[in-house]
Amino acid sequence: MAYNELYQYSVVSSLMEGIGETGLPYSQLVKHGDHGLGTFRRMAGEMICLDNEVYQMKSDGSIVTIDTSNGTDVAPFAMVTRFQPSVTAKIAFDSKHGLSDVMSNLFPKTKNRYLSFRIDGLFQSVAVRTADGQRYEHEKLRELHKRQTTNEFTNVRGSLIGFRSPEFLQGVSVAGDHLHFITDERDRGGHVLDCKSEGEVQFSGSILSAVHLQLPDDDEYNEAELNLDADGIRKVEG
Amino acid sequence: MAYNELYQYSVVSSLMEGIGETGLPYSQLVKHGDHGLGTFRRMAGEMICLDNEVYQMKSDGSIVTIDTSNGTDVAPFAMVTRFQPSVTAKIAFDSKHGLSDVMSNLFPKTKNRYLSFRIDGLFQSVAVRTADGQRYEHEKLRELHKRQTTNEFTNVRGSLIGFRSPEFLQGVSVAGDHLHFITDERDRGGHVLDCKSEGEVQFSGSILSAVHLQLPDDDEYNEAELNLDADGIRKVEG
């Protein structure tokens, strides 16, 4: 795949419905990109992909490096790109909302396309959650959300990997900014609820206009009733 | 592109908003498929692509063969595929709704994926409409719809080219069945409102799970406020 094209496996509405038994093998996913986020079978933890590695960040706080050569892990949902930043900048922000504003200024006229971005440096705080996995088949994301583990890391060095998706593609992707975090030591991380830089951190980002959406082909997905639960997505992925 | 992958330029919500000044050159579009439908600059008529030709079916009843080698025509919206049917059948139907039922039986468990299909033969009747083009910049599709030209052809030989899109992708594509018609003589056609086969006609179709969505990159698209107008889409594309 060319640089800065989005490869997405499945749609968020499917994840919301709890379609998590099967997915794309990570060995195949990494052929489409080196920068991304997603989840694992039965939504067990949060996925982050950077620097040619894929990590599973679990709710017990442990982090597993995924074997992408011949491992058996699969992604019921994932977004990746071959990341080549077109914009780099030193930026500072005191909240996830503040970060959004900074990015909107860095990328004017992009609200109807995707962005991919990465932020490296020292963070005053990063609040994360990790999903602990489905307890029964097709448990919905709204249910998992109720018992998610949250953590706040302070004075921590690490990387944020994220995507911004257009509002009108809510349900396909997660509208707005969706980002995962991992420390430099690769020992802590999760889905970012809030974040605050310590002074300036290094931002890099690019616009994605070409989207490759792979719809699953298995009974679980094919039989699912997929409806847009915009409120639910904001709740569990916001 | 591989067989039976969907290539789509822009999204239906953009078309609804009247974003029609620019688009993908047809010379580029045809590289992605040989079977499809779409529209033209300022929504002037209906596009149908089959048998390695692209036709513009205009509201005055004329049909133009598009020069896809070095022509200047562009598609503000189009869907194409390299069509290789996996299912062929002799089918009969007495309405567009009846055709939908036949296809649902031919393709069980596909409601969350796309279908592409083609139907050739003798039709007792085919009711079509053709959009007459925007009268001012950004005129919305709902407005164009009010003065669309409709026609009913009877005892006519021709081809239907269509796509079925998942309900949850309404706004990206046209949810449900969306089909265009052209006669064997390539002298009449349009966007199909209703159709009735004369006895049995030849059906061929395939499932599409890989979707390549190219989002436009021009000021007109980038500045558009894109919202899902599901009711409007059903009205103008149903």
TrEMBL record, chains A, B:
Keyword Transcription regulation assigned? no
Q: Which PANTHER family match?
A: ALPHA-ACETOLACTATE DECARBOXYLASE (PTHR35524)
Under catalytic activity, the entry for this protein gives:
(2S)-2-acetolactate + H(+) = (R)-acetoin + CO2
Q: Tell me the InterPro entries matching this sequence.
A: Acetolactate_a_deCO2ase
Keyword annotations of the record = Acetoin biosynthesis, Decarboxylase, Lyase
Task: Tell me which Gene3D superfamilies the record gives.
Answer: Hypothetical protein, similar to alpha- acetolactate decarboxylase, domain 2 (3.30.1330.80)
Q: Which GO BP terms, alphabetically? A: acetoin biosynthetic process
Which pathway does this polypeptide act in?
Polyol metabolism; (R,R)-butane-2,3-diol biosynthesis; (R,R)-butane-2,3-diol from pyruvate: step 2/3
Checking SUPFAM superfamilies in the record gives: AF0104/ALDC/Ptd012-like
Q: What species is this protein from?
A: Hypocrea virens (strain Gv29-8 / FGSC 10586) (Gliocladium virens)
Query: What family does this chain come from, according to its entry?
Result: Belongs to the alpha-acetolactate decarboxylase family.
Q: Does the keyword Lyase apply?
A: yes
Q: What is its EC number?
A: 4.1.1.5
Q: Note one Pfam family from the annotation.
A: AAL_decarboxy
> What GO molecular function annotation could you give as one example from this UniProt entry?
acetolactate decarboxylase activity
This chain's protein is named: Alpha-acetolactate decarboxylase
